[in-house]
Amino acid sequence: MSEHIVKAYDEDLKTLHALIQHMGDLTIEQIKKATQSILKRDKKLAHEVIDEDYKIDLLEIKVDELAVRILALRQPVASDLRTVVAALKISNQVERIADYASNIAKRALLLNEIPPFPAVNGLSTLVKIPKRMLERALSAFATNDVSLALHVWHMDYEVDEQYNAYLRELFDGMIADSNNISACTHLLFAAKNIERIGDQSTNIAEAVYTMVTGKPFKENDKLRNEDEV
Amino acid sequence: MAPKINIKQLNLFYGDKQALFNVSLTLPAFQTTALIGPSGCGKSSFLRCLNRMNDIIPNIHLEGQVLLEGQDIYAPSVDVVALRTRVGMVFQKPNPFPRSIYENVAYGPRIHSLFKTKAQLDNIVENSLIRAGLWGEVKDRLSQPATRLSGGQQQRLCIARAIAVNPEVILMDEPCSALDPIATAKVEELIDELREKFTIVIVTHNLQQAARVSQQTAFFHSGYLVEAGETGALFTMPEDERTQGYITGRYG
After folding, report:
1. Which range of residues forms the domain containing residue B44?
2. Of A143, B19, B33, B188, whose CA is between 20 and 30 Å from B128?
3. Per residue in B161-219, pLDDT tens?
4. To which H or E segment does residue B23 belong?
């Protein structure tokens, strides 16, 4: 898209994109570290994740302030308006995802108190797709890529399947030996948080879809557009 | 909503120069249509075609049809003076006559003999001023010169003058461009109220104003009607790249 006649307007929108990107990068790092803190029983790393969460909260506030400023001073319309509205929604979702990472790290601290449990390793597989979904959803926002957004949306089916399979594994572990219940419960919560990262990433994808097409994201649209992906 | 004015395949020429190209647009009754576009895009020329204000320009040539409730206003049988009582106009700069406030509003009803008694004329003047939202501010000084009013009051007086002859359509050519934000807000509120009784067409360079006051927006560029649609849709999801570029303030 060509540039605004008023250059400062372009700068504002670029800053908005950069803030979201920065939030996303930090959050992806948080997800990696949180998962590692469970897998490696790394208490220090878990504390790092919990302590760093405020940075993402602050970035969300910055996005809100800049978006409101753009709305008040530039009165955006059409694609600019849709971008600002999408940025507001996306920053909110990224902040939630960062909270999930922090929750996962808290489970690491609790798991550290009890003996190691083999099913822990399943988390490293489970986290891969949600993390990739977040990366791609943010990339779709940065490049106005609606087909990438739809692709992200469809990735969530796989997350749900893997999540359900992992739950069964945990339940089997609990049934086999009641001593496993404590570890399995913590892992269950961690897995739920990971699954929610996938859900929130689909919400980002939906916001990108609306931003680019100007239409609300409806279930039928996804199914109809499945072939295009 | 039934169409009040239906413009079909309108082409306008000033001598050899073509100002409008194949413009077709429907103006729904009791709605405000905003005409937007860069300077020289043809929006004011188009507005002036709707009550034949262009007639006085030499070498003007027009093709196509402007149907006011189905009747072509360019048909030879049409009485232009009568047409302009049905399609009134408000201009960019408030232009009250150098007469009293009362006489400004009474002028139209007088020349069109719209009353029988002085009491009836008083009634028309009062009602027009009430509808223009000016009555409270001027009722005690109707005999004072209209030129003593503030710019915003003068513009509302011009609107009162336009509605005094009970038109069906009111054309407004940048009615707020000379007014401050408060006076502008009063005129915008007035436009919204007048929509109950009249069909309004407004040319404005202020895009936010178009968004605020209109139900339909039409975007003109280089004499072409690029896009027309429901105002909310046009300002959130325009269909044409040129509309998008213009309303977001980008280079075309």
Report:
1. 3-247
2. B33
3. 999 999 999 999 999 988 889 989 989 999 999 999 999 999 999 999 999 999 999 99
4. strand B17-28
Taking every pair of Cα atoms in chain A, the longest distance, rounded to a whole number of angstroms, is 69
Q: In this complex, is the C-beta atom of B11 within 8 Å of any C-beta atom belonging to chain A?
A: no
Task: Report the b/e string of A124-144 with b at 16+ CB within 10 A.
Answer: eebbebbbbbbbbbbbbbeeb
Distance CA B45, CA B11 (A): 11
Provide the angle, in degrees to the nearest 10, between the axes of the packed helices A7-39 and A43-74: 160
Q: How far apart are CA A101 and CA A194, in angstroms?
A: 8
Q: Which of B138, B117, B118, B125 is nearest to B164 (CA)?
A: B125
For chain A, which domains are there? 3-228 (1.20.58.220)
| A82 contacts B248? CB cut-off 8 A | no
Facing A78 at nearest CB: one of B208, B248, B252: B248
What are A54-80's pLDDT values in tens digits?
A: 999 999 999 999 999 999 999 999 999
Amino acid at A113: E
Q: How many angstroms separate the CA atoms of A47 and A89, rounded?
A: 28
H or E element that contains B21: strand B17-28
The structural domain count of chain B equals 1
Q: Taking CA atoms, what residue in B is nearest to A216?
A: B237
Vertex B245 angle, CA B239 and B249, to 5° = 135
Quote the tokens at residue B49.
Answer: 């075609």
CATH number at B213 reads: 3.40.50.300
**Nearest alpha-carbon partner for B237 in A90, A147, A77:** A77
**Nearest by CB: A80 against B243, B248, B252:** B248
* Burial class of A115 by CB neighbour count within 10 A (0 to 12, 13 to 18, 19+): exposed
